[in-house]
Amino acid sequence: ETGVTQTPRHLVMGMTNKKSLKCEQHLGHNAMYWYKQSAKKPLELMFVYSLEERVENNSVPSRFSPECPNSSHLFLHLHTLQPEDSALYLCASSQGGLASAYNEQFFGPGTRLTVL
Amino acid sequence: GESVGLHLPTLSVQEGDNSIINCAYSNSASDYFIWYKQESGKGPQFIIDIRSNMDKRQGQRVTVLLNKTVKHLSLQIAATQPGDSAVYFCAEDRGGTGRRALTFGSGTRLQVQP
Fold first, then answer.
1. N or C terminus of chain A with fewer C-beta within 10 Å?
2. Chain A residue with minimal CA distance to B97?
3. What is the pLDDT of residue B41?
4. Is B102 in Cβ contact with A45 (below 8 Å)?
5. Which residues in chain A are closer than 8 Å to B101, comparing Cβ atoms?
6. Cα dihedral A23, A103, B25, B17 in deg (nearest 10)
7. Is B44 close to A43, i.e. CB distance below 8 A?
8. Is a pLDDT exceeding 50 seen at residue B79?
């Protein structure tokens, strides 16, 4: 596969469940991002990893836990979510990290999450 | 992948007409801007970018104009086609040293009438 892939594409979970979202980039990039896209807000940056080190955490609740085992993979672990966490979760990658200028980000297709 | 439920401004154009989508950005220090297109069921897709040392940049059927004086960005699509129907986002790189990141606008929905 090419580009940025995400699995699963759709996920329905209860508030007591634990699940994980997976993102993989095949572009040789050094930085990866998690965004939340909900119905009533613009894209919200959640986490950024640059060279596998978390460099950004935008006041995201602890029920969201990211993991970046290597530069190609990014996970978002979910536990005890709330219905208001239902949204499209997008992963992106870029060649440079946050200190790099002109840093185009490439997005995956997203995971549509519904919390019941 | 669409922002379902978000009350996006909508631009409706006839097939073959030119489209102009506008975006106001907030940070005068932003030095890099990107336009993304998001079709239903997909993630945002890069269309074109522009650096702050330029006023205009052209791609295939698309042109981005940057007016730094009024902090305004526009995307022009020539000869709009049904496949151009999507939500369009502008993003600004807040610039500076150290941590840089993209900030996205809320988007404009483009509807192309056949």
1. N
2. A99
3. 84
4. yes
5. 45, 48, 56, 98
6. -80
7. yes
8. yes
Q: What is the pLDDT of residues A59-71, one digit of tens each?
A: 899 999 999 999 8
Element (H, E) at B90: strand B86-93
Contact at CB, B105 and A42, closer than 8 angstroms: yes
- Determine the distance in angstroms separating the CA of A107 from the nearest CA of chain B, rounded to an integer: 6
Cross-strand partners of A36: A44, A89
Q: Is B8 exposed, middle or buried (0-12, 13-18, 19+ CB in 10 A)?
A: middle
> Phi/psi at B82 (nearest 5 deg)?
-55, -35
Q: What is the pLDDT of residue B67?
A: 95
Which residues from B are below 8 Å from A45, CB to CB? 101-102
Tell me how long chain A is: 116
Compute φ and ψ for A84, nearest 5 degrees. Answer: -70, -5
> Which residues lie closer than 8 Å to B72 by C-beta, 6 or more apart?
B22, B23, B24, B25, B66
Residue type, A76: L
Phi/psi at B80 (nearest 5 deg)? -55, 140
Compute how many other C-beta atoms are within 10 angstroms of the C-beta atom of residue A27. 13
